[in-house]
Fold this sequence. Notes:
Distance between the termini: 12 Å
Shape: globular
CATH architecture: 3-Layer(aba) Sandwich
CATH superfamily: Vaccinia Virus protein VP39
Amino acid sequence: MLRGEVLGPLLAGIDLGRELLEFGPGPGAATGWLCQRVDRLVAIELDHDAAARLTAEYEGGNVEVVVGDCARTPFADDSFDTVATFTMLHHLPTLATQYATLAEALRVLRPGGLLVGSDSLASTELHAFHVDDTYNPIDPARLLIVLQALGFERITLSVDRDLRFRARKSDVDQHNHVTRPPQGDSGARPSLDRSQRDGTRPHLSGDGVPPTSGPSHVDRAVLPRCHRDTQAT
Length: 233
C-alpha cells in the first residue's frame, strides 16, 4: 500500500537527487522503492535487529544501513539531496524528539534539498494497534509550525487518510542556522505554500518545541482527524 498509494503519488515527477537518507526504515517498506531512484541510499535505524535484516537484504547494492538515532545522526552538514521519513514520526516518544529529528533533517540536507514523508493520523484504532509500542501521532497543524520554525520552505501538507508532506531547505547556505533543542511542489488540498504565509515565524517554547498558538494559516476545519488502515504502522 505504501509504495502504490503513497510513494508514487507523493513523489511523481520529483527528482530525489543522487543521495538519500531514510530515517527509521523499520522493515524497509519504502526502502526498496526509494533505492531504485537514487545512486546511494543511507538508512539510519535505531533497532539493531531491523538494521541487521535490512543489511542482509540489500547486501551488495546501493543501500547502506547505519544503526543510530535519527535525532542525532553522525553525518556532516549538507550531506544528502533528500531526507525521507515514512510512517516513522509517530514512533518518536515526545514532541521534542520529533522536533529534533526534523531539525536534523534540515541540517544534513544540501541547500535546496527535499524533505519528504508520510505518517499516521490519530485514531482510536491505531492507538489500540500500538498498545505495546510507542504511539505519538503528530498533529498536521503542529507539523506545519515546526517546519516553518526550522526554516523549511515550499512546504506542502496533504491530509486525507494519512498525513503527507514535502518541504525544501533554502537554496541559501544555512551553516550554523539549525541547532538541536534541549534533551516541486503542489499537492492535494490543503496545500500550504510559503507564498501563502506572512513570513512570520512562531517563537519556540522552553522545551525547544514551537507552541500550537500563534500565527498560522492552517484551518483545522480542513485538517480533519482521519482514520487509517489499522494494518499501517
